[in-house]
Amino acid sequence: MVQNKIAILGGGNLGTAIARGVVKSKLSLASNITITRRHLAKIDHLKKEGFKLTSDNTFAIKNATLIILCVQPKQLAGLLAEISASIDSKKHILVSTITGITTDEIASLILKKVPIVRAMPNTAIAIGNSMTCLCAKDANEKQLTEIKNLFDGLGVTLVIEERLMKAATVLAASGIAFFMRYIRAATQGGIQLGFDAEEAQLIAAQTAKGAASLLLNQDSHPEIEIDKVTTPEGCTIAGLNEMEHHGLSSALIKGIIVSFEKISNIKK
Length: 268
Known about the structure:
Order of helices and strands: EHEEHEHEHEEHEHHHHH
Radius of gyration: 21 Å
Low-confidence stretches: none
Structural class: alpha/beta
CATH superfamily of the largest domain: NAD(P)-binding Rossmann-like Domain
Distance between the termini: 40 Å
């Protein structure tokens, strides 16, 4: 059990998901986690789960060793100005989940040398099934390993070069929405074929999970698994070809590229 005190600054969807994921994975107790938000009424229900809540960010980090930043990009400068004087470079590790903000930008706002780890998880972290990419600045191997171990308990973790973090944001964080849209579309198709909505969604979601598991558990490739399903003059190849004629792969790739281009403007 990780006993480090954790301060999550920004109790929005992601911050709350991280907090719950840490507890669900038994990496820490809810009583060791302090969550902040300007309007506490929006997260008041978390008290019943044992989390500590406050609107005072400086107070939240006072006894913490790990500070996780989960605010919006436009709120970061104000947040760091508020807590900078209270950050202890010998005690604290900063973990930023903020889209589009580099470790150099964070360091320039703190004005002191502090271990900074940039993390890009997705909302599946709430159930311990996130894909999280990490990069670091001024963090030694032990400190980076500590943060990696934390996120390893919340899914799968990959340490990457910082130049790839925007791409990781699109593939992992935005990617959740992209796959959800496919599952929704498959569900609608199933309803048209005669299934009830609940049945169609179960089939679509479990099939998507199975497809991903084949790649992850067998170190396989999508085309190999596709070839196993498609038979000459069969229904699967007919459906795949129809989807491709309507631009399925092209639309997905274009969507990913547009999302990537948008990231650079998020904090403007």
